[in-house]
Write a structure and sequence with these properties.
Elements lengths: L4 H27 L23 H29 L5 H26 L4 H25 L7 E3 L3 H27 L15 H25 L4 H30 L4 H24 L1 E3 H5 L1
Antiparallel strand pairs: 1-2
Helix pairs in contact: 1-2, 1-4, 1-8, 2-3, 3-4, 4-5, 4-8, 5-6, 5-8, 6-7, 7-8
């Protein structure tokens, strides 16, 4: 049995969507205070493997069951990397990185339950999920590229450095955002421990990192005046990034000044996932397969 590159690419999209979906449902668990609806692992509780007798248990149970969709999607990506004709070592490697990340995150999810939703464990759970999204986005892009062609940098060195700085800024914003969450009201359970930091201060740090990252994006736009090549390869990806980033900034400020309503927090988490995809794609835009770069 063999599959075409186009068929394999569709399987990578499925894996990426599943990885984003599980982040959103995980956020829904936290926002409904259902994080300890199932207080054991892998069983829901000490008596039942599956328990939907209460609303909190049902919500947490659904999220756990959706993990099976993620495992299935990632397994299809791995199997497809071996069945794809021709087989490519880079696609095999990136698909296996998803497997390792999913199982590591499943273990971290169990630890999160065992430590009663300690914010450090919750932070690690989300950050590892973001790393998985980045790997999934790389796999999607690589699967669309021609076989047997090395990648090369196609933008100026200065533009490449600015894009890497922007990616670092996004990562800092996500990390500081998890600290805000760890100190904020949505803990996943009414009795969960919160971080002993001033939420207003850490929110300012988070907001400052967002503003600094947007400034870097503006610098990239200004660099287009000096290089038509940079504009050609980066303008589309940067436009998508700016759309998502501005949307995220607006949602972030609105939710902060309106008492952090649950629906806006959920939208902010979904936006963070999309922003990480856009950031990964923009990083990949700085290099291309040699044939495409030459064209």
């Amino acid at each position: 049995m063999r599959i075409t590159p186009a068929t394999y690419q569709r399987s990578t999209y499925f894996a990426l969507l599943a990885l984003i979906g599980i982040i959103i449902t995980g956020a829904a668990v936290r926002l409904t205070n259902s994080g300890l609806g199932c207080d054991d692992w892998p069983n829901c509780n000490s008596e039942k493997l599956i328990d939907v007798s209460s609303a909190h248990a049902a919500i947490e149970q659904v999220n756990r069951l959706l993990t099976g969709v993620v495992v299935f999607a990632v397994a299809i990506a791995v199997l497809g990397s071996y069945l794809r004709t021709p087989r490519r070592r880079d696609l095999v490697w990136w698909s296996w990185s998803l497997v390792l990340g999913v199982f590591a995150n499943a273990f971290l999810g169990a630890v999160t339950v065992w430590v009663d939703l300690h914010p450090y464990a919750v932070q690690g759970h989300l950050l590892l999920s973001m790393a998985l999204i980045a790997s999934g986005a790389v796999l999607v892009r690589r699967s669309s590229e021609p076989d047997g062609v090395p990648r090369e940098r196609v933008v100026s060195l200065g533009a490449a450095r600015l894009v890497r700085t922007l990616a670092l800024g996004v990562t800092v914003a996500v990390v500081t955002g998890t600290v805000v969450t760890g100190a904020g009201p949505h803990a996943g359970d009414e009795n969960a421990v919160r971080l002993n930091v001033d939420i207003s201060s850490i929110a300012r740090v988070h907001g400052g990192s967002v503003i600094a990252t947007l400034v870097v994006a503006v610098l990239i736009v200004l660099s287009f005046r000096r290089s038509q090549v940079d504009r050609e390869f980066l303008q589309t990806g940067l436009s998508k990034w700016l759309t998502v980033a501005v949307m995220q900034a607006v949602i972030g400020y609105v939710q902060y000044f309106t008492g952090v309503p649950e629906l806006l927090v959920l939208a902010h988490v979904a936006g963070a996932s999309l922003l990480y995809v856009a950031t990964t794609q923009l990083l990949l835009d700085t290099t291309r397969p040699a044939l495409l770069g030459a064209g």
